[in-house]
Amino acid sequence: MIKKKSIFIYLILSVIVVNCSTQSSTNVQTRKSFYTPSNWKKPIVKKNSPKSLAKKSSQSTHQQIFKDSPKKIVPFQREQMDGYASWYGPGFHGKLTANGEKYDQNMMTAAHKLLPMNTIVRVVNLENQGAVTVRINDRGPYKKNRIIDLTKKAANLLGFLEQGTARVSLDVIQFPDDFNPKDGLLPYKQVVIQLAVFRNKENAIKYIDQLSNKYHQIKFSIDPYKKETFTIVAGPYLKRDQAVQFSKKLKAEGINNFVRSFKK
Predict the structure, then answer these.
(1) What number of other Cβ atoms are within 10 A of residue 201's Cβ?
(2) Taking a C-beta distance cutoff of 8 angstroms, is the pair 149, 110 a contact?
(3) 190-261 — its CATH code?
(4) 180-204 residue pLDDT tens
């Protein structure tokens, strides 16, 4: 009798365990269809900087609405927003990203060629309609036809981890607070030649005068995006080839320099 009761209890427990694992599996599949970080609505605000509010817009353009000018709507043209996504993982795990963070393949971040650092982007897999929300913290990808490089975790949630790439569409949920709607993405497309860094503004201006007297056709200035130092740059250039050409000329004449993005 006791043996029969034990078998009966064992059968009931088996049914409960199977039921629970089935529900757990269903929940995992549901989460994969759309993933949003718990704090994605929280504005990204740097210390000692004014807060700004960004909202999504239509499919053809994005409209950025700022707190300091609520009536002003700035159109954002879709560029590098439709194409193929890829992912990068083990070979980059722990290395520094373009904004100085350590890359973590298990976090919800991504690399994009143009979008400002800390932009929040919703990525939709057009092949299965899965979607994730990620934060831009790196530059890339540099292979043709690819518009975004996701972490291993994001690629897994979007369902293309094994195939490696997927056709996607991007939507900006929020720009960082230092994004200037008047300039748009232009500063992020441009490159400059960095020549020197000064702590003293007067010394920086003197060096600009020296360079301007020798190279009349080139614009030299203090980088407006470097607030802590007075960084001397030439440009900006829309085409990297132009910057590289002049950079080589300066190096040949003994002036150290390097080409970089105007704004990250």
Answers:
(1) 11
(2) yes
(3) 3.30.70.1070
(4) 888 888 888 889 999 999 999 999 9
Q: Residue 144 corresponds to which tokens in the numbers above?
A: 């043709």
First-to-last CA distance in the chain?
Answer: 75
3-state secondary structure of 85: strand
- Are 149 and 86 in contact, with CB atoms under 8 Å apart? yes
Judge whether residue 230 has pLDDT over 70. yes
Task: Using alpha carbons only, give the angle 186, 191, 195 rounded to the nearest 5 degrees.
Answer: 140
CA–CA distance, 135 with 120 (Å, rounded to integer): 5
**238/112 Cα distance (integer angstroms):** 18
User: Which pTM was predicted?
Assistant: 0.61
Do you know the residue count of the chain? 264
Beta bridge partners of 133: 122
Q: Distance (Å, rounded) from C-alpha 93 to C-alpha 152?
A: 10
Task: Indicate where the chain has its CATH 2.40.40.10 domain(s).
Answer: 61-174
* Nearest by Cα to 54 from 120, 117, 9: 120
- Return d(Cα 86, Cα 171) in angstroms, integer: 17
Residue 105 DSSP SS3:
coil
Of 54, 30, 71, the closest CA to residue 122 belongs to: 54
CATH 2.40.40.10 fits 61-174, yes or no: yes
Cβ neighbours around 123 below 10 Å, total: 25
More confident residue, 106 or 80: 106
Please give the pLDDT value at position 264.
80
Angstrom CA distances, 122 to 175, 191, 200, stand at 12, 27, 42
Give the list of residues 6+ apart from residue 46 with CB closer than 8 angstroms, or none.
Answer: 176, 177, 178
